[in-house]
Structure formats: C-alpha cells, structure tokens
Design brief:
Mop_domain (chains A, B, C, D, E, F); Mo/tungstate-bd_C_term_dom (chains A, B, C, D, E, F); 9% helix; four-stranded antiparallel sheet; homohexamer; OB fold (Dihydrolipoamide Acetyltransferase, E2P); molybdenum (chains A, B, C, D, E, F); 69 residues; Transp-assoc_OB_typ1 (chains A, B, C, D, E, F); globular; mainly beta; 58% strand
C-alpha cells in the first residue's frame, strides 16, 4: 500500500499509554521520538506495543513551522 | 515561547516551492526530510528559505500509524 | 500495510483537478463522492487518475458531526 | 446552515463510546461506518445516541489517499 | 443545523484571496481576524465575499496552545 | 519564536478538564472562549491552569466556514 502523505517516518514503538478511549503511542524515529494520539481500537488492531516496528504518517497540511525571531 | 504540540522537530529548510496561495516547505531533520504545506504569507513572515533553521511542529492527534501486516 | 486511521473508504477516482501545488482528487465510494486535497507530488507518486482504485483515509479525530436542530 | 467542508456524509448513529473527555461516535453512512472522535460535551449538546440521524463532516485537507502498489 | 465543533466564531468576511484550487478567506470576529483555507468550490457554494456574515468553525483537537516561557 | 499558523489568539485560561490521556483547556480570547484538546503532558509542561496567559494557535487549513442559507 502507498500513501499520499508526504511524511512517513519509520521507527520503533517506545511505549503505549492507554486512556479511556485514546492512547498515546511514542515511536523512536532514528533518535527522535514522535508521539501519536490514536484510538484504543487502533492500538489493538495494529498490535502496537513496545518494540513493534511502526511508521508515523503525517500529512503536509498538518505540519506547522516555527522559527526563532 | 513554548507549545503544547508533542512533536517539534528542529532542522534546516531544504527548499520552498511557492504556489498561488500555498507553499510547500521541506525541512531536513537530522537526515529525514519533513514536508509542510503552509500559506505563502507564512513563508514571507517567517522568511523561510533554503538554509533557514526551522522547526516542524506537529500535534500528536495529527499523526497516524502504519505497520506492516 | 495497515493503518491506525479508523476510516478507510475504498472507491474509484472520479477526477483529479491540479492546482499550482495542491490537487483535489474525488473518489467515488459506493455512490458517495469523497474529495481529498493532496499535494501534486502525491498525485504523481500514486499515479492518481480517473478510474484508479483508491482508498480515502480519515482519522477519527478529523471528523466533525452535524445534526439537524 | 451550509458548510465549506467538501465531505458531508449523512447517516445514522450506530453507537457512542464515552471516555473521560473524548467520545467515539460511529455513524452508518449507507452501509459504511464512519468513526468520529468528539468531545463528551458535543455528545451531550447534539444528543448523539444510537438511532440519531447525523452527518459526518470532513474537510478535504484532512483526507489522505492510499493505493495498492 | 448544529455542529460538534467546540469553536464557532461568528463574524464578517473581510477578504477572499483565490488561488488555483485553494482560497484564503479572512473573517473578522469581533476585532480579531481569523484566516481559513478552503477550496475554491466552497467559496463559490457559500457565496463567500467581503461583507458576508460567516462563522469560523474549529475542532478542539485542531487547537494548539502556546505560552511565554 | 514565531509560527507559520495564521491564527494566534491570545487570552487567559478559564479552566482545564483532565481526562485519562487528553485534557480540554478553555481560553478566554477577548470575551470569546476557545476550547483546545491537548495531551495531559502538554498541560503539565506548559503549566496550564486557570488564570495563565495562553495563546490558541490554529492553522488556516483547520478552519471550516459555515454560513446561514
């Protein structure tokens, strides 16, 4: 499967914190940790857990830019 | 200034492609290139151009996860 | 590949309208047409064109709900 | 009221799962189920419950596209 | 029609800048100007133009927070 | 720090409601209350609490427009 999203950062799941309906999944992408907020159902479906290889997918229109003054 | 966004990836602008109202800015973040789609006004305001140090900012709720089957 | 996104609507591309940097791709999903705004690069990479089988992918946190009063 | 969002999929609420602050609402849109993640306040305000007619509203810029290789 | 989105800021359109596929619409909300990036089709459908009463609608999950150090 | 986001609405935090993983923060922006859904980690990091000066940051591509018929 291929995706239109311009940003696909492959890494390894570092940890998964489950909430009542929403989980936070942290993925180590070459030393940088990316946090994703996904549904608990997605965590179960994709078997997301520490050590799982996973890709953080981000649409270009969801990226803001910050600069120092 | 500090931001609530969990993902703040610092890097250097690689290129800026301007459209009629929307520009695509690519930022090299430690070897990984992140693409952001922002308004042309933002490009002007932040003086975004090749070589500019910039941070890609992404909310955790805007990150999807993909895994191999 | 499997995705965390709860909404994955499979259909057929109806048309692609290219802009300067951003394209609008319309996908017929069982009679309902879903419009996606993606980068021109994504249109080229995924060879999106009329008749191409494609899936509209939408995160649950990007869906609003409207009701009649 | 009319909305700028290109995607407005009318259906019927199938179920509502409440979390601590965030609920997941599933809407049957002509046989396809669309999941929305909304605040608990929205569930109360809109009286979202099984059987309620509701429309899933999605901005074109929030739709990704996936294709088979 | 009622919407799940927590943020609905009513105002008056100040200007509309059309691009190839995407327009930028600025709405004056009680002295604060809010900019929306929408499709050209939406501008036509909703007859968006200077002086038109319009509401900026924003999901709570799309709002970031910034604070001074 | 400067941000590409077109919408930066400065105000004062009115209240913070914590969930299991996600908090809802309401900010009074000159009489209008804006609700943001952020991670609990962000609430802790930014010391978000009633009375704290804070800015609601919203990308133009995340703003929908509604009009009366």
């Amino acid at each position: 499967m291929r995706l239109s999203a311009r940003n696909q950062l492959k890494g390894v799941v570092v940890d998964v914190v489950k909430g009542a309906t929403t989980s936070h999944v942290r993925i180590d992408v070459g030393g940088t940790v990316v946090t994703a907020s996904v549904t608990n159902e997605a965590v179960a479906d994709l078997k997301l857990a520490k050590g799982r290889v996973a890709t953080a997918v981000i649409k270009a229109s969801d990226v803001l830019i910050a600069v120092e003054e």
